[in-house]
Amino acid sequence: MRIDIITVLPEILESSLNYSILKRAQEKELVEIQVHNLRDYSLDKHRRVDDYPFGGQAGMVLQCEPVDRAVSALKQARAYDEVIYTSPDGERFNQAMANRLSLCGNLIILCGHYKGIDYRIREHLITLEISIGDYVLTGGELAAAVMADAIVRLIPGAIGDEQSALSDSFQDNLLAPPVYTRPSNYKGWVVPEVLLSGHEAKIKEWELQQSIERTQRLRPDLV
Ligand code: ADE
Prior knowledge:
By secondary structure, this protein is of the alpha/beta class. The protein has helices at residues 10-17, 20-27, 64-77, 95-102, 119-124, 141-152, 162-166, 200-218, and strands at 2-7, 32-37, 50-51, 61-62, 82-92, 106-111, 116-117, 128-131, 185-186, 189-190. The protein folds into 2 domains: 2-152, 3-Layer(aba) Sandwich (Alpha/beta knot); 172-222, Trp Operon Repressor, Chain A (Orthogonal Bundle). The strands form 3 sheets. The protein has a 5-stranded parallel beta sheet with strand order 2-1-6-5-8, sandwiched between helices. Strands 3-4-7 form a 3-stranded mixed beta sheet. Strands 9-10 form a two-stranded antiparallel sheet. Adenine is lined by residues 86-88, 112, 131-133, 135-137, 140, 143.
């Protein structure tokens, strides 16, 4: 899989994409993540990529040309499954979407910024608009990092124990059951008996019950 992220602030992404599971997945060549500075595609001598909005509102708007040049350069090299734009008015990101996107070959993520981007980009180049939640970030970089993380960890081999991605919260619209580690008794805080029993079927049943109870209590909207 390959993810190309286009941004005016590559620095924000470099750190979040180059640690832990995302770093290892890239080292294992399960995914290639390339971050592109939109300014590299500006034809302006000051590398400007934004301008004042028609209509006189406040704020700056990303221009069509650098974005079009960046997306076209990438599309010339390979076909993309989706050209994603991060925006608070996009479709809400969730685990089902992460699952679907993790099966794609190539993705472009264009990070929104400033007041927005020229709407013609959204009409002509973008195939999917995604919001990571009902709040407004200063830019789309953190949203792109969140999506890349959620997508990449689902690629088989990205996390050591493949089972653990399947037992994540939300994977079956259920929250994950509690987990514990040694010691089994810490200051009188004890681990549920059943987990120490070695009885696999009983443990599975207990975990399912816990998942159902936690989902009903904490996220009744998922039930
Ligand atoms: N850009 C600004 N806010 C955002 C959000 N909530 N989701 C995705 N991109 C954004």
